[in-house]
Structures are given as C-alpha cells and as structure tokens.
Amino acid sequence: MRRWPDLSWLVALRRPEEVLGWSLNQWDQRVRLARRLRLLGRLAEAVLGAGLSSRLPEPVVNALVGGSRLARVRSQALSWCRDEVARALDGLEAPLVLLKGAAYMAQRLPNAMGRLPSDLDILVPARVLPQARARLIAAGWTEVDLDDHDQRYYREWSHELPPMRHPMHAIELDVHHNILPPVARDRVDGDVLIEAAFALDGSPAASWWVLSKEDQVLHCAAHLFHDSEHRDRLRDLIDLEVLLGAHGADDPEFAARLVGRARRLGLEDALALGVTLLREGLGATLDPVLDGMAREALSHRRLAFLCGCFATVLAPLDPDAEPGWQLRASETLLLARHHWRRMPLPLLLKHSWHKLQLRGRAQSEVGPN
Amino acid sequence: MKTLAEVGEAAVRDALRADGLWLDVGSVTVHVRSDAPSLADALTDVYRHFPFQSRPSWADLHVELRARRRVHVPWRPQAEFICDGSRPFEPFPLDTALPLFEWGVNWMIGTRLHHRLLLHAGAVARNDLAVLMPAVPGAGKTTLTAALASRGWRLLSDEFAAVEPDTGLVWPLIKPPVLKNESIAVFRQFAPAASLGRVYPATRKGDVAHVAPPADAVAGRRRPARPIAIVLPSWQADAPARLEPVSPALACSALAFNAFNYRICGEAGFRAVARLAREASTWQLTYGRLEDALNCLDDLYERTLASPPRTDHAELDALQGAG
Hints:
By secondary structure, chain A is α/β, with parallel strands linked by helices.
C-alpha cells in the first residue's frame, strides 16, 4: 500500500499545545496543507482557542486569524440558511433531518469548531419531497438550470433534488430523501434512516432532527467512499474519527450496534474502509469489535485494493503536490467504481453517453483556444 | 541585503528556477518559483528596490509560474499560475508572465488574507499619516496613487489598503501600481523620472504597465501609518479640481463597499470601518489634471495637520456602541 504522508501534525487538532514545538518552516507547510484539506479553520480555532497566540510567530497568528474568520463567517451563513430553510418548511408533517456539517454544528461536535462548510444538506422523507420542494421554491430557492436528462436523473435515479440556490444565501442547499441513490447497488431504505433519527432539543437548531448516532457514522463513511471525488478529502476521514469518538465514548455497546447497523443497511464495506484508513493513515485507536470487523473485511483482496486506492487519493504528500500517475490511476478506478455502484448498467451507459455528448459540445463551443 | 536590481537578472532567474524568490511586500511575503525567463526579467525591473531573498523562510503565499508548450500550437508558449497544487486561472501567453503573476497574486491575497481588512484603495503617507483612496475600477485611483508616490508621498498600496482592525493603522502592501491604457502616457508625461516597467499591449485588461515601487516605499514596508483622510477620487475630463466633504455615514458605506473581505472580517471589519470614518475626514475629489489633484491633497494634508478631524460624530458613536 502507498506510503501515507506524515499526518502526525493533525494531533494538534486535539492537543493544540503540540504546535509550540513547530518550527516556522513546519508551520509554513502545515498551514498550507491544512488550508488545502479545508482544516485551517479547525486548526486555527484549536490553537487560538487554547490561548497560544502570544507564543507563536506573528505571520502564523495572522494566517490562523484569517482562517478562523473565513470559517466563522461561513458557519454563520450556514446557521442562518438552516434557520431560513426551517421557516420555509415549517408545518410540513415530517421530521426534517440535518446531515453532515450542519448536523455536526447542531450537536456541537468537536469537528464543528472552525469548520468551513460549503453547503447545507438536509434529509426529508421521500413522501414529502414534492411539498418540500414547492415550499422552498415559494420561499425564493431556485434549482440550478438543468437539461431534460439531468432533470430526469435527479427525479428518478438520484437520492437528492438538484442543488438549490437563493439570492440571499451564499450557501447551496441539497435536499436529500436518502443517503445513497435508490437505483444504486448498495441502496438504503430512506425510511429506515428516518425512523431511527432523533430530535435535537435544547440546541440552536431546535426544530431539526439528526440521524441516529450509528447512522451518522455510516453516512459519513458512505458519503466519502461512494462519492465521485476523493482528492484531498482527508477531512471526511477526520469527521469519521470524531463521530466514532464522540458517539462511542461512553457507550461500550456502540461498536457492536454500529456493526449490526452497517450489516442491516449494507454499508459494511464503507465502514470497514473507513476504519482501516483511520487506523493506517491517522493511527487512530479503535474499538476491538470495529477493528476485528474491518480486518476481516479487508482480508478480501478487492477491498484491500480499494483501500490502497483511497489511501493514494485522500491526502497530498506536500502542499505543492500535483497528481502523479498513481493518483490519477487510482482516481479513475474510484470514479469508475463510483458510477458502477451508483446505477445499473443500462442507465450507466445512457448517462455516460449523455455526459460525453455534453463534453463534446462544450469543447466545440470553446474552440481550440 | 542586496536588492533585485543589485544582484541582477541572471541571479533572479537562477533563484526562480531553484528554491524560488521570497518577495516581502510588507503585509505579505510571496514565494515565487518560475522557469519563465520573461518573469525573471520583469521582476528584476519592477521589484528592483526589494531585497533579494532566495533562502526559504515563511511565506503567506506560495506560487509558481510554469512555462508550457502545447503539442498542437508549440509556437504559442503559455505560462500557468499554480498555487498550492491548483490552477485557479486560465494560462496566459508566456511573454505576459508579469501581468499573470500580479493578477494571480492579487487574487490570492484578496481571497486569503483576512487578518486585516483589505480595502480596495490606493494609500499613500506623509510623515506616517495616510490618505486612503477607495475607488471603483476606472476612477483613476492607480494613476493618482502612482503620481503621489512620485512626488514625495510614501506608497503604501495601490490595490489593497490593509487596515488592522485593533489599531486602525494601515499597513503597507506594496504591489506595483498597474497603469492601464491612456493612463500610461499620462503618467509618463507627469513623472518622466519614475521607473515604469515595459508596456504589455492588449492583455485581457488592455495595455498595462507596472510602476516600480520607489526605494523609500520599499524601505518603509514594515512601517504602518495612521489614516487621516479618506479621499474618493473621480476623474472627469477638463474638470477643475475640487474637494468636497462627505458625511461619515457615506464614508462607511464607501469603505465597506470597496473592501475585499468586509463580510469575512465580520465584527472586526465593521469596527475598523466605523473607526476609519470617525477618525479620518472624508472627501470627494473631482479632478481633470493630476497636478491640480496633487495640490488639493497637499492642501488637505496641511489643513488636517493644522486642525485634526472632529471625533464627535454622534451618529458613529451610536453605531460603534451598537457593535
């Protein structure tokens, strides 16, 4: 398997005083890596929050202050957007579930501090999807312009509506009815997720729900390993580590329930990949039940190979790193796998043909510049 | 430490090809590497007074300009702008490497440097007292800033006036002012002795030429200045020069509107803008001739020294209190 980059510096997210031993040169590298991995805000909040700024070089503090400001304004934008969406969907007879970053923020998990969110992801039951869409459109949200094929893609084969935008919000809204496409090979029953979800009481997002603790972990893993883009996505792996830590800390039965839930939802591979990469890449200490499950799953050559591909793509070796042939090859394989698992073959052929045509058209419009 | 002009183009080229060049322009240090020969030539010319530093140290931005030839048009080489492994812009023709470098770096500064409020403003100082000139593109800000810098004012910035929220001070960020189209000839005529880089004809922003920041500006790149006046310039052909006072409330909106990162700076940005509008006087400057504009600003400086601006704007106190 590929040599992992040195990620030991990430320990500073949990133990910020470690940074007092960093040289200016190390800071230079790590600030850039953190920014590239969308972790600069988190590093900044950890270090500045620990009151270390007076003991650090001035340019470092400047970079951290800048990173923290950007993350804060984006988090604020996300909270505001979330509240406005709640208002628009108020009265809908269904639980409204926050996913990913918004859910971490609402639960005040450690990975919410200094997070740099780009969109708001929510989940509603499939049965209320048309009403939810209509209400959002009435509240000023618009769907991005799509051709007939893409509209059909979202309507019939996807697990979410087309991304929505609003003139007052800098945040894009993704309304999901499931965490994986209904036509995918590893499909999940969206209603099962909603049944297990729970309401957030006494949080700033009081009208919202979040997925059950096990499902949050599984969604995080599924989101990372079933997505089409993996380059520099180390943050998702760190999210997984935080979720396992925060939800499993005081609950000795959590790991066993998680494994059971993964079996039920058919997401064992994603969980096993996540756990293995956490162990090998981030040196995480894991619950023996989880670890045993992952080791057994990884004894299959297919999954071990996949794990190597992900390890190659998730984190750059240094801040200037550009993709080499290994990375490109891994990415191509992962993208092929993504599509293969996402839709049945006839649909995949149709979809690929459409995308190929679009690409040809775009190139002929741009011209040979 | 020797300057770029002192070490000469060959040394600059070697450094750019090896570990790179660390350009300390005040609020920012830019690390640049490049194999484009035209860039070495242009940097030596335009950054002539900056210290030549080719040993690794901290940099706020790391960029690379890489020459590339494409198989189907090998006779049209290009330069790519690369920052932290990504390419945020389309490539430029190789012989316009300097404009690409300047725009690329400015873009990165505007999207990343959020520890100071970055006003889109020219800024000059005399005796460490600064005049800020926020303006929309086309208002003549650059020509005026370059003209002032050629007549005894210390150049602090042409593009980014970097205001420190906690102190209200403006810190130098000395990128070379970029003159466009007709203003190149106007400036040449006005300041024949000033160093101007070569003219790049017909770039994406028309003809452009870069003014080499003067030695005194470079020497003072770590010395902040206290803003005493905000001047909103507006060039009108043949108009007589006149300065008209502007209300602090309007000053606030002009400053916030012309800032790159006002929203991102959040409360710190609001406080910085409110403080500027309170502590500096604000003026609308209409002018047709550079000479007249400069006289106006010299007068303004003398008058401000004689009677410092009022600091009792109740309106702004209320705003400040609310924040």
